[in-house]
Amino acid sequence: xxxxxxxxxxxxxxxxxxxxxxxxxxxxxxxxxxxxxxxxxxxxxxxxxxxxxxxxxxxxxxxxxxxxxxxxxxxxxxxxxxxxxxxxxxxxxxxxxxxxxxxxxxxxxxxxxxxxxxxxxxxxxxxxxxxxxxxxxxxxxxxxxxxxxxxxxxxxxxxxxxxxxxxxxxxxxxxxxxxxxxxxxxxxxxxxxxxxxxxxxx
Length: 202
What we know:
InterPro entries: Homeodomain-like_sf, HTH-type_TetR-like_transc_reg, HTH_TetR, Tet_transcr_reg_TetR-rel_C_sf, TetR_SbtR-like_C
Oligomer: single chain
Region (Disordered): 1-23
DNA-binding region: 48-67
Protein name: TetR family transcriptional regulator
Keywords: DNA-binding, Transcription, Transcription regulation
Helix content: over 70%
CATH class of the largest domain: Mainly Alpha
Shape: elongated
CATH topology of the largest domain: Tetracycline Repressor, domain 2
Mean pLDDT: 83
Number of domains: 2
Largest sheet: none
Strand content: under 5%
Order of helices and strands: HHHHHHHHHH
Number of helices: 10
CATH architecture of the largest domain: Orthogonal Bundle
Low-confidence stretches: 1-18
Radius of gyration: 19 Å
Number of strands: 0
Structural class: mainly alpha
Distance between the termini: 59 Å
């Protein structure tokens, strides 16, 4: 049976439940999520449920029981990280006394996280081949708060005035890919430093 057929069959027959998970079921779910996070960080959204189940030490039916579709698993792993990104941007925007430092710290934080997680990179880039599209509201929140940090830094003359959030988002994805390669040649953070230097006012 093809994965998409299995996805559809399980999804059609899976009954929602609000009962709390038993301790063993909760452990299995947590283990599946931990393995999925690791595999998605290197393989993107193409990872197979069979391999996740094998590495987690559970049957593939257990994976489908907790996550009836590939999109459901991808969502659980990826969207939680993007929600954390939004929370961090809100905190930096409200608490930082130096807008330029807040923007640069946030950009470096995002690149470092996304560089280690190919699935996150795909989701934020809006790749149509991924298993999940980021919900409009979550994407809007992410862009809005990132833009707020950018605008605060520009108003403080800490970032060049001729860039906008679309430019920065493009640079973010490019820097994440470059950072992944830089780490393979033992040069971590070099790509981040180059991009941030280019964003300083001239």
